[in-house]
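Table S2 (continued). Query chain:
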Amino acid sequence: MVEYNTPALDRVFHALADPTRRAMLRQLADGEHSVGELARPFDMSFAAAAKHVKVLEEAGLLSRTIEGRTHRCRIEAGPLAQADRWIAYYQRFWTARLDDLETAMLRHAHQKKRRSRK
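Corresponding output:
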């Protein structure tokens, strides 16, 4: 099984835990933006937005280039794929458990119905 308990995955989930950072990533999914553009919907300072960008950058979720005084950000999907694999594992796990529960309940209902006919 792939090792899912890594510091990199921890940084991704930490970054995604904040709704502002998730919204910033959503903006970046539409294309490259400056830090100022990322800050605009939240009515926050450049410094506050830069802190969010730094967390996303440290998680590998975005890359930043500097053009003069403008910091341009671009989404990086690789770490999201790792998080998706981690989530998919547990989705398969719980789907299988719920399927087993459904089977057991149907079997129980069928047996109960057979007993009541006798």
